[in-house]
Design brief:
By secondary structure, the protein is an all-alpha fold. Helices cover 72% and strands 0% of the residues. The protein contains 5 helices and no strands. The radius of gyration is 20 Å and the shape is elongated.
């Protein structure tokens, strides 16, 4: 999502890179959407882990992720697979905004400082930017 938003910005604003606050917004949006989509699998993972630690007579004996999700929807309703989504989305929004926004800003800075040494999509540029941003 982040790359898509960034690409659309560059297409609609040729020759201009997005400001840092716009990069942070792109990261927020990408993190929120991605984490919301991934919440059911995270909920199933937690349920599978918790189920294996229960006493044998209290276990639901899930056979896998899809069985766990199916059981949750049939027994608890469709909303059950999104339990905890708000916390997950808030965490991912903050993390993605900072990580993606600052990584892009640092890559741009490195490229401006020394275009010959740091290409815009050069592996060493990406690694350095990601390391500094984290």
């Amino acid at each position: 999502f982040y790359s898509y938003l960034q690409h659309n910005y560059l297409v609609t604003h040729p020759g201009r890179h997005p400001a840092l606050w716009i990069e942070l917004l792109f990261g927020c949006f990408a993190g929120a959407v991605s984490s919301y989509i991934g919440t059911p699998s995270e909920v199933a993972l937690v349920r599978l882990t918790a189920d294996s630690k229960l006493p044998p007579d209290q276990r639901r004996n899930y056979r896998g992720v899809f069985h766990c999700l199916h059981t949750m929807v049939t027994e608890e309703g469709a909303r059950s697979i999104y339990k905890g989504a708000l916390v997950t989305v808030c965490r991912a929004t903050t993390l993605s905004a900072v990580q993606m926004g600052f990584t892009s800003a640092i890559k741009l800075y490195l490229h401006h400082v020394s275009p010959a040494l740091f290409g815009s999509s050069d592996l060493k540029t990406i690694v350095i930017a990601a390391f500094v941003a984290s």
